[in-house]
């Protein structure tokens, strides 16, 4: 039996925030990973997390600091994975 409840779709405001943030997120990620291909990967991973965590976002708070922290954590995870590759 599957106990997972269906996810509520993100609000239009949340989707607009994610859409508006893409250039800023990419620019921030580039300062952390330096390679455009890596930044593309990290941005994609960040967007997946943003989508998964949509229900956790508090619309009373500023979106960008929250999204940038997620991007930072994803960049750090990406760098850690890269260090394991011989």
Count the strands? 0
In what range is the share of β-strand residues? Answer: under 5%
- Radius of gyration, taken over Cα atoms and rounded to an integer in Å: 14 Å
The geometry reads as elongated
- Give the SSE string: HHH
- The unreliable regions are none
Can you summarize the main beta sheet? none
- The computed structural class is mainly alpha
Counting H and I runs of at least 4 residues, what is the number of helices? 3
Cα distance spanning the termini: 42 Å
Report helical residue fraction. over 70%
Topology:
Blueprint: H1 12-33, H2 36-52, H3 63-84
Describe this structure in words.
This protein has helices at residues 12-33, 36-52, 63-84. By secondary structure, the protein is mainly alpha-helical. The termini are far apart.
Summarize the structure.
With 86 residues, this protein is an all-alpha fold. Helix content is 71%, strand content 0%.
Protein traits:
86 residues, mainly alpha, elongated
């Amino acid at each position: 039996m599957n106990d997972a409840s269906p996810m509520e779709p993100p609000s239009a405001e949340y989707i607009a925030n994610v859409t508006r943030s893409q250039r800023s997120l990419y620019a921030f990620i580039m300062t952390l990973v330096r390679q455009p291909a890596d930044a593309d990967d990290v941005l994609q991973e960040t967007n997946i997390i943003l989508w998964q965590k949509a229900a956790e976002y508090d619309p009373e708070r500023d979106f960008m600091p929250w999204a940038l922290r997620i991007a930072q954590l994803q960049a750090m995870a990406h760098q850690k994975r890269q260090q394991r590759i011989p």
